[in-house]
Amino acid sequence: MQIPGKITAVLGPTNTGKTHLAIERMLGHRTGIIGCPLRLLAREIYDKVVLAKGSSEVALITGEEKIIPHHPKFYVCTTESMPTDQSAEFLAVDEIQLAADPQRGHVFTDRLLYARGLAETMFLGSLTVRPLIKELIPEAEIISRPRFSKLSYSGEKKITRLLPRSAIVTFSASEVYLMAETIRRLRGGSAVVLGALSPRTRNAQVAMFEEGEVDYLIATDAIGMGLNLDVHHVAFAQLKKFDGQRRRSLTTPEVAQIAGRAGRYMRDGSFGSTAGAGPIAGEIVSAVEEHVFPALTSIYWRNTELSFASVEQLLASLEQNPVSPRLLKPRNAEDIRALRALASDPTIKT
Questions:
Q1: Is the pTM value of this prediction over 0.90?
Q2: How far apart are CA 239 and CA 273, in angstroms?
Q3: Which of 84, 149, 210, 268 keeps 20 to 30 A from 334, CA to CA?
Q4: List of residues 6+ apart from 276 with CB closer than 8 A
């Protein structure tokens, strides 16, 4: 059995070139797999790798799209769709700090703990995950990268005062479309980006904005996960979101992740809010501008060594507790609750 190669964690704020570095490293190997937090980002990276290597050598696997040629050498995937039965010289996972997300985190934690490239493994993400990586993967080399450009707060602005190349962020499909209609009436056309769009439509909307056909982008927080867009300013139309359980205020790292889409490479960017959303709190502004955030103290984990010998053994293996205090088991996982309910029905169990 070949011993996995070098493990590197490349950490820093947005616009530090982390994803670009990973793509360049992957293209330097004969085979590679990269996991992305977002379908749009996977598609963006897939297009870049295809340009470099040709479509016959590159696979795209997400929850929506599968483009798998015969014997591909490179796999570009969402993190959940990364093939676990394939080995590659290079392996990378982007936005690894999402291991702290209650819904998706256990998948990122699994990749952090077990996914390895034969020659090189690279984890990309925020500096907030640095202490956990040092503790859980002591052999990893940690590299910190500074942001290329400055990110500044510009306060509240009316929609009519937003400059071209602005992205307006809200947190529901209905709000995205309402804002898009408002922009259409007041400022001309806009592109919209949200998860409910088909891959073809979503890609076409991004292309409209990138090619300058429209000056404004209306999006959900999906744009925060690594998309390389020509955005000069990010305006929050809302400072609260529904997280699947309750409506709550955005956390400081969430504001930073989304605001960080403004200003790419050496061009400075700005962020703020629209009139009516209210100002962003001063302590959040300071943290975002200075890129200083509390370190993560735990990440989510689920047992992947499952027993299918019986329903009882499957439930027991699903509910197994982690061995490290840094690893948290998600509460009330929907699939476990559904399995437990089905197992209690004697007509199904028999």
A1: no
A2: 8
A3: 84
A4: 237
Band of residue 349 on the pLDDT scale cut at 50, 70, 90: low
Cβ neighbors of 260 (< 8 A, separation 6 or more) are: 13, 14, 15, 147, 151, 224, 269, 288
CB-based contacts of 136-139 (< 8 A; 24+ apart in sequence): 136/112, 136/324, 136/326, 137/7, 137/9, 137/112, 137/113, 139/7
Residue 157's H or E segment, with its range, is: strand 151-157
pLDDT at 15: 86
Q: Do domains 6-144 and 151-290 have the same CATH topology?
A: yes
The residue whose two tokens read 């404004």 is 216
b/e per residue 206-238 (b: at least 16 CB within 10 A): bebbeeeebbbbbbbbbbbbbbbbebbbbbbbb
* Confidence class for position 3, pLDDT limits 50, 70, 90: low
Q: Is the pLDDT of residue 82 over 60?
A: yes
Alpha helices in 115-247 (DSSP H): 130-136, 173-187, 199-210
Token pair 């053994």 is found at: 313
Cα 225–229–232 angle (5° rounding)?
110
